[in-house]
Amino acid sequence: MFLMLSRRKNTALNSPGTALPGGRPAGKRSRLPRARLLAAGLVLFAALAAMGCTSGSYPVDIFYEQHYQQSYKSHEPPRLAGVAGAVAYYPPPPNTTDGSAPHLYDVNCQMCHGAGAKGDGPVLNLLISQYGYETAITPDLTTLTPEAIEGFLKVTARPFGPTSVMPPFGKLLSEDERWAIANYIDSLPK
Predict the structure, then answer these.
(1) Whose CA, among 72, 100, 128, 155, lies 20 to 30 Å from 177?
(2) Is 0.70 topped by the overall pTM?
(3) Architecture of the 101-187 domain
(4) What is the dihedral of CA 102, 108, 141, 146, to 10 degrees?
């Protein structure tokens, strides 16, 4: 019996000329749900667009320049003025080396000149083998005097010209550090 009722319902809905409750013809659907869905979508779109167009410090901040108004100044905490004649102090960055000559050489020179200062470091070997780099002078530092090494380290521009890959160490190393590196290289086996 349930099967027959459902069949009857389907036939009544699908047969032309039959009317549904409310006087609407059976073959046509109501436009009311579609209109409500469209209106809800438009309201949602407008709300999202309004939230996306704000430019304040909060996601929905309509009067985001209110704190510039004079009447709003009373709501802000008092500001402390700086001491007259004070100078800002920015401490220098901490030194990352232990200050010993071998460590200074390892940090600044070893990647190109190698552990024994013979010019066989991994970075220089890569530049020569893969990029065809040609050195201006011999990269073997054990053939140079400490004075010559310190002279190369104290310049503030590239020591062998603008195409040289050796960076200038004049501003990076102090005079004591430059001499420590030069004397350390001089102590290495020739």
Answers:
(1) 128
(2) no
(3) Orthogonal Bundle (1.10)
(4) -70
Domain assignments of the chain as residue spans, ordered by start: 101-187
CB 122 within 8 A of CB 111: yes
